[in-house]
Amino acid sequence: MIMASSARGEATPVETTRPVWAGPGFVEFVALMALMMGLTAITIDSFLPAFPAIQGDFAVRDPNRLQLLVYVYMLGFGTAQLLYGPVSDGTGRRPALMVGIGIYLAGTVLAMLAPSFEVLLLARAIQGIGGAAGRVLAVAIVRDRYEGRDMARVMSFCMMVFLIVPILAPSMGGAILLGGSWRLIFGAMLALALVTLAWFGTRLPETLHPAFRRPVSVRAIGSGVAVTVGTRTSLGYATALGLTTGCIMAYVGSAQAIFDTGLYHLGPLFPVAFALIAGAMGVATLINARLVRRLGMRRLAHMGTVGLFAVACLQLVLMLAYGGRPPVWVLIATLSACQFLMSFAMPNFNALAMEPLAAIAGTASSFIGFYTTLLAAFCGLLVGQSFDGTVTPLAVGYCALSGLALATVLWTERGRLFGAGAR
């Protein structure tokens, strides 16, 4: 028997049994889901070292405009998520993902051939529209297969593998630049997308149970969105996830200017600084995956959020004390601490938001992805475009966004944190 959600969001039993799983084992399953999600990180992070070359090729006068290559991608990525989940709830996860990867491939080819900065921006938006399929459907597929703390554990492992990507991606992009044009970076993205398509197409069977199929219609989508928004846990933790992810987007958008062209001028060492900070996230996500079954999603999420806000406040005080230009090791240390604590919150926020929504996992994943991505992109753009040659705007952004995330969690839990019996 499987528990489904009624139109009012209430759990109701569905008399059915899960089919025998004929797909890959646990490790391969996690790796494939992480790759589907990681395609987005590669698409963003691998070409950050190419910003100066792109600026030179297209004569971009304002270096802050280069950040649009990140945020335009996120705009397409966030908006398209509204479609993939509902479509996959009706047609299945496999067809929806195949279409998404096809769109991503088209955008990547256009980026490789872009004759102007404006066309490159368009190509990035198309990449985002296609890349959204991997993010939405990876979460929906995990929810199809797992629930509760097991789901949080799988999501943590996925996030751990996914977070290895930012450690390697800038170095990969930098290595490609040593041997040729920035356009070859998009060639690497093209190859990876083809590998993802082949791996998914040959190894992963359809995971959506027939009992959970929903008609693809505006009414059905509206009903699923209404259930998601009307579920306090889902809306609250999705909002906290968007605000926390906004910190990451602010950092990613500003990283190249801070560490390379605008402040510290690290040059070839930029990928090293980026990797150190991303590595803290990978370590924390591994620890989270090991602790979540014992301590529960809520406890770890709440610990991470409270700790993040405290460290973000300390970081702001330090940045102001140095006039916005601290020694680079101080900035790397405080950002690493923030990312470390953030990684206890984000996978669990995602799992907590999805937990009550099994029967509408595709639509719910779509709406939550759309909402959190656009919220994160807006917050990241606001902070990133405030870059003034110092790290003060970034520190203010981390402090404000983590404080709002903590306030949102308190609202969601009606003022109670670290519940003894919390899942």
Automatic annotation (TrEMBL):
Name of a matching Pfam family: MFS_1
Source species, domain of life: Bacteria
InterPro entries cross-referenced by the UniProt entry: MFS, MFS_dom, MFS_trans_sf
Compartments in which it is found: Membrane
Ubl conjugation found in the keyword field: no
Domain Major facilitator superfamily (MFS) profile per the UniProt entry, residue ranges: 26-415
Membrane protein topology class: Multi-pass membrane protein
CDD domains assigned to the protein according to its UniProt record, in alphabetical order: MFS_MdfA_MDR_like (cd17320)
Keyword Oxidoreductase part of the UniProt annotation: no
Record field: transmembrane: 26-48, 68-84, 96-115, 121-142, 154-178, 184-204, 235-259, 265-288, 300-322, 328-345, 357-383, 395-413
Keywords assigned: Membrane, Transmembrane, Transmembrane helix, Transport
The protein, known as: Major facilitator transporter
